[in-house]
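are you around this afternoon, could really use another pair of eyes. what follows is a protein written twice so to speak, once as letters and once as C-alpha cells for the fold. i want to understand how the C-alpha cells follow from the sequence so walk me through it. anything you notice is useful, everything is just below.
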Amino acid sequence: MAFRELLRGAKFRSIRAVPRVAGSGNLAVVAHLLGLRRWLDRAKIDLVIDVGGNIGQFASALRYIGYSGDILSFEPIPDVFAALSDRMRGDRRWRGVQTAIGDRVGEDTLNVMAHPEYSSFRSRVTENTNPSDTVVEGLRVPVQTLESVIEELHLAPRLPATLVKSNTQGHELSVLRGLGTYIHSVKLIQCTLFSIPLYKDSPFMTEVVDFLHEHHFRSVSFAPDNGDSVRPVAFDYLCVNDAAP
C-alpha cells in the first residue's frame, strides 16, 4: 500500500478501516504519523523547516493530520520546485525557497536522478540499475546552511517551537551540522536514516543518531518510510530536544 493511501486512511486520534493494512510496516508508518501529530501539539510547534521539500509530500501530510502553522520548504531542483510552488499556492502559511541546504554556503553539484526524490550530492552505491540511481544531470545549485537561513529570516526566537525535517538522501548530517549552535534551540528534528549504505561516503544511521544524542536529543520514534517493503532500509527518525528552552 502506498504511503499516500495510508495518509487518506489515517486520522489523528482515530484510524478508519483501510483495506490491506495488515503488515507491521504499514502499521508502523501510521503510528509514526499519529505520534508526530501528538508531538507537534505537545511541543506547541508553529514552524516546520522542511529540508528536501521535493513536491511537498511531507508538508501536505502535515496539513492532512491537522498542523496549521508555518512551513518553510527548501528544494533546489527547478522543475521540482515549480511543482512544489503549485502545491503551495493558496496556503498563506507555506513558503518555499529554491536552494539546497548543507554545512557550508556556496554552490555544489547535485546528482539529479530519473526519479528526482532520490537526487543527492552523493553518488549512489549502485548506479544505472533503476530510476532511483540513474543520474540524468549534474546540476549546479546554490547551497545555504540552516544557520544562515535562521539569521537571514530572524527565526532564532521561534526555534524552541520548531520542527526541522531533513530528507536529503545521505546528506542529513551535513544539514544538521549546518545548524551551528542553533541546534541547541530546535525542539524537534525528524530525518531519514538508512540501515545500509545507499549513497557513497554517507554516514551510517548510528552516526546521525549519536550526533543528535550528543546535542541532547532523545529518540521518540523510528519507523519505516515505506510500509510496503518487507525489509525496509529507509526510516523516519523523530527526536526531541529536552534541553531546548
Q: What stands out?
A: The chain has one domain: 3-102+154-241. Confidence is low (pLDDT under 50) at residues 1-24.
